[in-house]
Design goal:
It is built from 13 helices and 15 strands. Strand 4 and strand 5 form a beta hairpin. It starts with a strand and ends in a 6-residue tail after the last helix. Belongs to the glycerate kinase type-1 family. Keywords: Kinase, Transferase.
């Protein structure tokens, strides 16, 4: 038996390596043992940083750079991707409205998604008819009103003055005027890559679950949550959209809700979007092996994470799937029921993460080579 074709489809290893980097290291490990084997790399991203590069690496396209407003309304250079069909844009909101752009100035009361709206607007100007928006890694909690304002929506207080386009401004919101929204939005399909199912407000909502990591203390979290509740009520009254009860509406500080309400977006798991766009079924149909992975595999991986999504696709074609991961957590064995054949950890010694990440690349290469040697040494595979 000959190992002719291997597909590599990992997520990033959070805090250490991007999915693109993981792909390259695993490819090297394969080639060191099976130099003649065809290797196809499909890096996967979950909607956060690296989403654009993952798409462009997988299927090609062009990276577009644009001057936009960052979360604090300062001008920065952001980017998005246009895929080879010239009609599909891929945006990661983190490029314009991400947490990394504010560094030590985190404050979701004043952060805005306006720059994300500017990226959408630029994609429309280029004639894009489908826009994929990755909504991970945000610094914001504004319900997407900044994004919508960039597209022409007006958010007004009781005196008919425009509110601040941030999480704090939602407190004064009394009326939404969509009459000036860019008409091209209606003819554009918007898909939001979202890997959480949190509602907009409440104990499991955007503010309570994600606010603290964006700089919100306990008092601010309560304020932000109340503001999102006010926003949801006005959206329901003025637009007739119940954003609270849409799974994932609380993603990216409520940008999920805003994209649905103002752009007619569909919220989908990031893994599903990527696999559909790259036509993954066609790519793997004649593969001999699929290698996937992520930083840590555990019971949470069953909730739409990359390795399980990949395994479910591969199982349709009876293709074995190996998961190479940084760490193995509780209930990881449950992924075997979803199509994962075997799990290998790159951590060769039980050391803390801060130490492990120093040698993570070397260990990933060694682990891949070990897996390939095992395959080579069994059943006469060459």
């Amino acid at each position: 038996m000959t190992l002719k074709k291997i597909i590599i489809s990992p997520d990033s290893f959070k805090g250490t390596m991007s999915s693109i980097e993981v792909c390259s290291i695993i490819e090297q490990g394969i080639k060191n043992i099976f130099p003649d084997t065809e290797v196809i790399k499909i890096p996967i991203a979950d909607g956060g940083e690296g989403t654009v590069d993952a798409f462009l690496t997988a299927i090609g396209g062009e990276k577009i750079k644009v001057k936009v407003k960052n979360p604090l309304f300062e001008e920065v250079e952001a980017f998005y991707g246009v895929l080879p069909d010239k009609e599909t844009a891929v945006i990661e909101m983190a490029a314009a409205s991400g947490l990394t752009l504010v560094e030590d100035r985190k404050n979701p009361l004043v952060a805005t998604t306006y720059g994300t709206g500017q990226l959408i607007l630029d994609a429309l100007d280029r004639g894009c008819l489908k826009i994929i928006v990755g909504i991970g890694g945000s610094a914001t909690n504004d319900g997407g009103i900044g994004m919508a304002a960039a597209l022409g929506v007006r958010f007004l207080d009781e005196e008919n003055k425009e509110v601040d386009l941030n999480g704090g401004g939602l407190e004064n919101l009394e009326r939404i005027d969509i009459s000036g929204i860019d008409k091209r939005i209606k003819n554009c399909t918007i898909v939001a890559a979202c890997d959480v199912d949190n509602p907009l407000f409440g104990p499991s909502g955007a503010a309570y679950i994600f606010g603290p990591q964006k700089g919100a203390d306990e008092r601010m979290v309560k304020m932000l949550d109340e503001n999102l509740k006010n926003f949801a009520g006005i959206v329901g009254r003025d637009l007739g959209v119940d954003v609270q009860n849409i799974p994932g509406s609380g993603a990216a500080g409520g940008l999920g809700a805003g994209l649905v309400a103002f752009a007619g977006a569909k919220l989908q798991p990031g893994i599903k979007i990527v696999l559909d766009v790259v036509k993954y079924d066609e790519i793997i149909s004649n593969a001999d092996l699929v290698i996937t992975g992520e930083g840590k595999i555990d019971g949470q991986s069953l909730r739409g994470k990359v390795p399980v999504g990949i395994a479910e696709k591969a199982s349709k074609y009876d293709i074995p799937v190996i998961a190479i991961v940084g760490a193995v957590g509780d209930e990881a064995e449950k992924v075997y029921e979803r199509g994962i054949t075997s799990i290998f950890s790159t951590n060769l010694q039980p050391i803390p993460f801060e130490e492990a990440k120093i040698c993570c690349r070397k260990n990933l290469l060694k682990t891949t080579e070990s897996v390939m040697r095992l395959i080579k040494g069994t059943q006469g595979i060459k």
